[in-house]
Amino acid sequence: GAVVSQHPSWVICKSGTSVKIECRSLDFQATTMFWYRQFPKQSLMLMATSNEGSKATYEQGVEKDKFLINHASLTLSTLTVTSAHPEDSSFYICSAQGDGTANEKLFFGSGTQLSVL
Amino acid sequence: DQQVKQNSPSLSVQEGRISILNCDYTNSMFDYFLWYKKYPAEGPTFLISISSIKDKNEDGRFTVFLNKSAKHLSLHIVPSQPGDSAVYFCAASARNTGNQFYFGTGTSLTVIP
């Protein structure tokens, strides 16, 4: 099946630094990628939807200047957490969708656990 | 507002028996439902889906039932195997409003050998 690679899987950073998370579709072209955030014992919460070559669409309450999303190619989307603070510590996970005509499933990356000290 | 709910955070079942995981939703516009399985430190993997035009979909040991009037779906695993131990998420979407999926909080299934 389709493979989505996400890295790093775990990152620890100091407060005030920026962290970049990459999400790659390895064997298909992902026209749409989604970024989720999950707090312990809570569901996956959609943060933003990114389409290749256009600006990401952010969900209500998600700061677009803090969570920068770039989807420059059909196989790569990046999420940059800028000026990270301890409250940004969470599990971030991306998913990718193909051209939408026949593939309605989401394929997930393995997630990134971010810890901000 | 949680549009998709999984009210049982955990479930334990004996190997060989049936596992039943439940999911409720509130948005009547949802017309496509999926179940995902997640092992620790891994991303969710797709398990089975069902469209609102059906009330049952079966794939091997996994069967998903949809009750639209009750806004309820369930995943049946029979017979349960120890390798089925994982967290199961249900997800729903309304395709006429785009492909945004709403996830439940997950149910952790433990199959006891």
Textual characterization of the structure:
The complex is a heterodimer of chains A (117) and B (113). With 117 residues, chain A is mostly beta strands. Chain A contains no helices and eleven strands. Helices cover 0% and strands 50% of the residues of chain A. In chain A, strand 5 and strand 6 form a beta hairpin. In chain B, a hairpin with a 7-residue loop joins strand 9 (86-93) and strand 10 (101-103). Chain B starts with a strand and ends with a strand. The interface between A and B is medium-sized, with 26 and 25 residues.
Low-pLDDT residue spans of chain B: none
The total of helices of chain A stands at: 0
Large-scale geometry of chain A: globular
Largest sheet of chain A: 7 strands, mixed
SSE topology:
The complex is a heterodimer of chains A (117) and B (113).
Chain A: E1 4-7, E2 10-13, E3 19-25, E4 32-38, E5 45-51, E6 57-58, E7 67-73, E8 76-81, E9 90-97, E10 107-108, E11 112-116
Parallel strand pairs in A: 2-11
Antiparallel strand pairs in A: 1-3, 3-8, 4-5, 4-9, 5-6, 7-8, 9-10, 9-11
Chain B: E1 4-5, E2 10-14, E3 19-25, E4 32-38, E5 45-51, E6 56-59, E7 62-67, E8 72-77, E9 86-93, E10 101-103, E11 107-112
Parallel strand pairs in B: 2-11
Antiparallel strand pairs in B: 1-3, 3-8, 4-5, 4-9, 6-7, 7-8, 9-10, 9-11
What's the short story on this structure?
The complex is a heterodimer of chains A (117) and B (113). By secondary structure, chain A is mainly β.
Q: Key features?
A:
heterodimer; A: 117 residues; mainly beta; seven-stranded mixed beta sheet; four-stranded antiparallel beta sheet; 0% helix; globular; B: 113 residues; six-stranded mixed beta sheet
